[in-house]
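COMPLEX REQUEST
Ligand: pyridoxal-5'-phosphate
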Amino acid sequence: MRATMNKSIIPNSWFNAIADYPELFEPYMDSETYEFLEADDLKRVFTPSLIEQDLNTRQRTIRIPDELMQFYKLWRPTPLIRACNLERYLDTQCRIFFKYEGVSPIGSHKANSAIAQAYYCQKDGVKEVVAETGAGQWGSAISMASSFFNLRCKVFMVKNSYESKPARRTMMQTFGSEVVSSPSKETDVGREVLRNSPDFSGSLGVAIGEAIEYASKDDSTVYTMGSAFNFVCLHQTIIGNELKRQLEQQDIRADHIISCIGGGSSFAGISLPFLDKRKNSIDLVAVESDAVPSVTQGVLAYDYGDSAELTPLAKMYTLGHKFAPPGIHAGGLRYHGLSPIVSKMVASGYARAEAYSQLEIFKAASIFAKCEGYIPAPEAAHSVKSAIETALKFRREKRNIIFCMTGHGFFDLAGYHLFNSGKMEDSSIPSEAINKSISDVRDLNQAISSPATKPVNTYPDHQQPNTFNAWWTRNFENTGSVPPSRSGNSAVSDDGLPGDGFNRKENTNYNILTQAMVQEALQNRRTEIRISDTCVVTPLAMELVKQHNISLNTH
Ligand SMILES: *Cc1c(COP(=O)(O)O)cnc(C)c1O
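STATUS: Structure written out below.
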């Protein structure tokens, strides 16, 4: 039993997790008024149908339109493949499976959301779509999808990849797209970045800023997004829904489900359909790069999705929107933030995160290639590494480990070449840069929760909680759900203002404890730090705590 190919198992619906799990939903916030945004506010850059999906907290399953199913059938169902040779190599009793999304025409899972976005854009009367792309995966996906649905397509490609991956560029151009190196001279955002740092190798944050600016200039042009947003996660649940059927057919019970996280859509897509309210039946593992460690080193806070501060604020794990990720080969993981849904999954204990370095993941990927023949994309190599670690850790247990192989590595062979020749440099945690950009996020979140700095032209402070309640009632009135409790990691803190994981007052209960916060306590000669019951302590923070004998108290 290696692969399953059975047309009938393609799911005809997506799973809209925020209807079943309202606690995973965090509304976007306006960056000037600090009010939660409504659908209308978002329609300036996105197409209405997708905004509706993004904020849909009522329907748990959403039917996939027939016209779209015709395109999904081009590559779905994707095979679920057992990595028997790898199991033998590792001498483990665990069974390792991978859900291979690299069979899509453009070679990754991103096609799943691209065709859905292009379909809804065309339906809404959009003429041109614009996108940013890191490694070139999203650009290829949206380019292909645009050609399916007769849309013009413009792609801002992170300079680093634009130069190192000319083949990806050609692929997009073959589908008819216009590809621009970012930072570019075509937008204010790009020109500003170039003025300050002419040699900047680009980042997803800047490219997003350029794409949004371009989209907001014209009514018939809209922005599309390769990850992070709720509607992208929704489209990707086709992976998990399909996997569920494949597992049922073969009578396999998943013990571990693993995917890498850049913006988090593949992880959301493969894992959301397996959520269960008891939180403990399946180990859901989100794997990040240690060079861009949003979850393991970042904070859960409101932040911009782009470095130009054009997006609304989203509550997510972030390294700060000014963080410029180092140039790792896994371009798709170079994002400072993370999907709000995936962030909440981790913060509420439904999932956990791991981080690995560049050499570790290439080593794992090369073992995998030698055993199974498939060469993983560097992003997917993070999941391979995590699967191998799990299979070794539980070597004598018959566990079923499933990881999402998000894409193939055929466009990343230059990276493999460096690795094979021993010339690849290892990544390392850019702690200093992280501390600096996180402190900006802290300031932002203090401003959000501080009545004194609220803009005068907005609601009086005492009405702020009501705004939230009204919003909540509108969106959840039919679900019977109650607003999240006003403590801990909820959207609203005790004083009724948006919670942020930080505290203004000294030494009150932290919900997130990072290295920077412990350093601050040390500077103030505090030997005790008070944290909430649900506090997430980052590994580096924990190291410092132990090193300096600081006591963490929950009361
Ligand atoms: C973009 C990309 C990723 C990361 O995207 P997520 O939305 O975090 O899943 C992972 N793997 C590949 C191959 C990609 O192209």
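REMARKS: Residues 172 and 409 are 17 Å apart (CA to CA). The longest strand covers residues 528-537.
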